[in-house]
Structures are given as structure tokens and as C-alpha cells.
Amino acid sequence: MNFTNKIIIVLNLALVILLSGCEKEYKEITIQQELISNIEKLNREVIDFGMIAEESNDEKLIQQAFKTTRLSYKKMEWAVEYFTPDPARFINGPALDELEVAENTFIPPNGFQVIEELIFPNYSIENKAELIRKIKILSGNLKQIKEHLSVITISNAHILDASKMELNRILALGITGFDSPIAFHSIPEAKKSLASIGNLISKMNFKSPESVQCEKEIKALINQAGNYCDSNADFKTFDRAHFIKSFLNPISKKLVAFQKTNKIEKTSRNNVVNPYAATIFEKNAFDVNAFIPSKEYQYSKEKAELGQKLFYENSFSDSKTRSCSSCHIPEKAFTDGLKTNQSLNGGNLSRNTPTLAYASLQNAQFWDMRQLDLEKQSLDVIQNKDEMHGNVANAIQILNKDREYQKLFKKAFPNSKKIEEWQVQNSLASYIRSLNAFDSRFDEYMRGESNDFTDDEKLGFNIFAGKAKCATCHFIPLFNGTVPPNYQKTEQEVIGTPSDKNGKKISPDLGRYLQYEMPQLKNAFKTPSLRNVAVTAPYMHNGVYSTLEEVVDFYNKGGGTGLGIQIDNQTLPTDKLELTEKEMKALVAFMKTLTDKGISPKL
């Protein structure tokens, strides 16, 4: 073998070794490895953002650095929110104090939304020191999250569940402007979040023909949605109805199909949303058992049937003349149609009677949120001296003598030998848990069961979920204050409701402050559901407004502050919405589509 041939052999061997080394070097990284790499990259961008904030006062440069970093965050939002929900609150949570009411303490907000308020719509050099400080805190929080995500186990079940939750987060919080309330960068950010879902599905590496086809369809829909975002990036004109029906809902259905095709088990991380519901708008999407105090309180049809009879039972009141149905009238969507109801002594109660429909899908009851569940809610009303002034134990003595009640209790609680107070409470609560019809024209439109939606109603939905910012407090699809996609917390707001229609003074009712004397809670009230809102007038905790038009006008002006009332802790944005007459009418038209077909349910 001559020298030239030896050289060729050596070179070929070196090339093989080099190529083998390259194969190892470029081996596909895992989802977890990519996630950690993305967090490291984001933190470098945040540090660079901090340097720009220190060295420059250029508004556009600072704002662009912010947009870049939050777009990078959107790539990993699925994991940060899913695996580290508590610290995630200080990465991209609302710019409001985090209240620990039981301890009478609060934690100041941190993260992207706080920074956004410092630099949008305009940047003032007066905010420079605070901006730099908040950026450093953000960097520190990202380091903590990286440490946590580095040591956890991420299964296919977690990835699929997190993907579906991220899709629902995009729908309820992303495209509505919840996490970009001032910069209005929501649409490009939604595109980035959607792309992360497509990447996750690809990296799961299921190889069956059915799975490959499903993956291909998911990625095609995500690409189409991204293109739509590129072509319609303006926040105020973005067609959310079209986007949800044409992209988000179909992607949701494909994710569920992908889960079933690959037999990916469900997780118990989020027990509120049915993991096999095709979309978040399905009738079976929400599980009322996720809001019960403990396992023995689980819903059953037998309990609900008993509860329906107890709902009309007068023996719970001291006078034997008042039942639950006296104030929550089924034909009026379980309200009473009054500004405020009458007390037992003939005077007026201080608050409007809220609907019981959909009341089971929240983590707090009453306007002031003083009870956490429906069981405690019923007992509170029965014992209240102004409402029923009754005693459950005394009522049970009457129920025990009724053969029909005896049979119904035995069916509902077959292992019990006697009627107990908790069973009465649980039965009443179970009836209320049956009052979630999800059969309004809006529901049918979103599920594709009907196209019975006018142009005005569609415009109204887009105004609701966009320009008017209604959906940043009344979250889609429940339209109450229970925060998606985890649904573990129900919010209160300070909107500055006036004492009368003249709008000169705030309502004297201090709301949640009466339970927890924290300044942030003065005049704070639970965000109620807007389902059936067209038939539940009057409105607000004190029934001050008689029509939806009056309510829309109040919000359009900026709440109580917009009326000229001095409110230091108003959580509702105080800027005017600048809705046109057409937009306000469309908004009302949309809210009327939230009325259930039949107010009294069929059990």
C-alpha cells in the first residue's frame, strides 16, 4: 500500500470519527433540556434588558427590549405556569398586590406586567430606578424557576395537559389582553405561545400513522393561526370569534384526539376541566366536584333532586314563610328582580340578590366572598337573622316526620341512618350545582351547533374580549371572576360602584373589607358571572343600575374614578374605553346571547 493510499485511509477514518462525533453533538435534546436552555436564554435577555434600562433613556429601545423578552417568555409559559404556578404569579401576573387575607398581609407585584406599566404607553425617566429594580427581581425569579424545572420529571401526560391548559390560557388571558393590558402586544404573543404547543407535540415522538397524521393536522392549524395573527396583529380589530372558532377550538379537538390516539393518561393536576372535553365550551367541560369542600360532598342526581325539594321548604325559616325560592326565583334566573330584597322585619337588605345559576363554578360565595363553598353559603343564609333566621336542626325534626323526605334522603345518602345537618347543606348545594346549563346561543355558536349569531352580536363579543377589556375580569367561558386556566382562585374587584345613579359618591358598603380590614379591599366585591345577565337586573352589589346600557356606560367612563369619585384603590382601569354608540349597543347585544334556554333545569 503506497503512502497516498495510507493518507486516504487515515483521512476517511478521521472523517468517520468526526461525523460520529457530530451525530452525538447534534442529538435531539429533550423537552426538559430545551426548556432549561430557553430559560437561560430568557434570563440573558432580561439581563441585557436591565443594561439597556441602565444605560439608555430611549423609549423605543426600552420598549422593544421588553417585547423581546416577553416573547421569549411565551415560548416557555406553558411550563412555568404549569409546574411552578406560585412563582409564576411574579413572572407575568397582574400588577396588583397578592393578598394573603387570612394573615392580613400582602406581597407587592413583580414581573412583566409591572414592568409594562413603567414603560408603556410612554417611558418616563422618573421610573428608571424602579424599572431597573423590577428587572433584577424578574431575573432572580427566573433563576429560581430554572432550579425547580431542572429537577422535576416531565411526563407525556404532563406535556399534553400543559399544552391544553396553555391553549385555554391563550383563549381566556392571551388574546383578551389580560397579560398585556397596556402594550397591547397580545396577538404576536399568542402566536408565540401557540408555536410552543406545536413544538411540544413534535417532540413527544409518537410514530403511529394515526399519531403522525394528528400531529401534522395540529401543526397545520397552529401555522394557519400564526399567519392569521401576523395579518391581523391590531389588538382592537382582531376577530376573536373567528380565531377561536377557526383555530383554537379545532386545535383543542385535535389535542384531545392526539391524547386518545396515543393513550396518554390524564393527570390530576387540574381537576376543574374535563381532560376529554373537546373544547372549553362543551357542556361537560367543567366539573362541579372540583369546587366541593371534601369527597363526601360529591354531586349526585339524587342529592340534587332532594335539594330541589328542600329549595322550596319553608321550615328552614323561623317564621315558616320563607324558603330559598322566595329570593332566588327560578323564572328570574334565580334572582328576585329587586334592587335589594326585603328583610324579615320588613326593611331592605343592603345587597342585591345574586343569581344561583353557575354559582357552583367559583371559589367564593356572596358579594363579599365570606364563604368559600355552597354548603357554608346555605347555612349562612338560613341562620342570618335578616334573611331566614332559622335553624337547620329544628327543621330536621320536621323533615323526619315526612315520609317523602325520608325516602329522598335514603336515596341521596344510602349509608346514613339518620338525617344530618351536613346532608341538608350538601343537598341544597347539589341542586345549585345542577344549574349550569351551558345552552345559550353563545354556547351553541362556539360549539358550532348553530350559526344563529348576528353581526352585531359577533362585534359585541369582539368588543367584550378586546377593546372594552370586559373579559379580563369576566373570564371566558364562565364569564365570572374564577381565573383560568387553573380555576383555583376567584377574584374580587374595586370598580367604584356609586351609591345612586347621580354617581357623586361611592357606595358606603365596604364589601370584603368588612371581613378583612386591608386597605386594598375597601369597596371590593366578587366578580359575578354574566351568564343570564340580560334577565338578572338590577345590577351591581347594590342594584344601582336598572339596565345593561347603564352598566356599559359606567364602564365606558372608567368606573367610579371616571365619574369623578376619589378612589385610591380602584382595580378597574380608570381610563375611558372610548366605545362608540354602535360598539356599546353591540356589547349589550352580545351579553343577551348568554341567556340559557331554560332557566329552571331538568334534573
Automatic annotation (TrEMBL):
Tell me, what's a Pfam family for it?
CCP_MauG
Where is the Cytochrome c domain positioned along the sequence?
302-436, 455-595
Is the keyword Metal-binding in the record?
yes
**Which Gene Ontology molecular-function terms are recorded?**
cytochrome-c peroxidase activity; electron transfer activity; heme binding; metal ion binding
Which GO CC annotations does the UniProt entry carry?
A: cell envelope
In which domain of life is the source organism classified?
Bacteria
Q: Which UniProt keywords apply?
A: Heme, Iron, Metal-binding, Oxidoreductase, Peroxidase, Signal
Q: Where in the cell is it found?
A: Cell envelope
Against PANTHER family, the record matches this protein to: BLL6722 PROTEIN, CYTOCHROME C PEROXIDASE-RELATED
Instruction: List the protein's name.
Output: Cytochrome c peroxidase
- Whose protein is this, by species? Flavobacterium aquicola
